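Entry: NAD(P)-binding protein
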Amino acid sequence: MAINNVALIGGTGTLGAPMLKALKKSEFDLWILNRHSSKSVYPGTRVITVPDDLDVDAVAQALRDNQIDALIITIAGSHVESQKKLIDAAFKGGVKRVMPAEFGSCDSADEKTNEILPLMKGKKVVRDYLLSMQDKERDGGAGKLTWTSLVTGHFFDYGLTCGLLKFDVKGRKAYLLDGGDIKFSGSNLEFIGNAVIKILEKLEETENKLLYVHSHYVTQLEVLAALEKATGDKFERIDENSEEELNKVRPKMLGGDGEATEEVVAIWGVVAADWSKREGFANTLLGLKQDDLQETVKEVLASL
């Protein structure tokens, strides 16, 4: 089983845009799935227009007509029903590999994480749905549908620009959780795109697996040192207790406050995101090398 034709849906988002860029540089033939009413344009990339409601039969036919081998989903992970429709369409359309919108800061396979952050349960629902599909036989000798879920930790370079890693880079402030000396996993956006390509190149080794990767395995104090070295400035240090902060913001999150949800993700993605000892940690399997922290910081500062 080999992958030739890859389709991506969600190609303009925070992850989708760099994923598109990485796939365009790869050896795979690339298509974009684009909803009928979408105003997104993709110069130089073939586009498959699909119904806004992702009608399963229509999407399946489009995937079959274009002989799509792999479907990469980078829409919001909270869009559970849309992902189920895409999975059903992939099954009917003869797709060999689906990668759901698992990517992100926290581990949806961790019971404590789902308790702290109910948002993650949707990702588990989608993965459980893929598990329920993986042994189903398809008509016409199409083989079985396979999947790979990829957990990446915080989007590291993006997270430095928007406070996700608990740094206000422009304001020269560092919000250090529990002393700032907790090791956590995070991945630059380009690295994630390359990880996906490696997965599609290693189909047997990555079949029906939940995998973890990181391009940075650092503490906040190490990030702070890199920022201070690159800027020549001392950052104001604000010490925070993660448990106290979660007790403040979780009630707001549970009440529907979007900013509070982002804050819970930011905190939990630092204090509970060490992938190095996870069973599915796959940097070595995929041949991925970590990025240089100082270089990442320099690139982020240049972009601000």
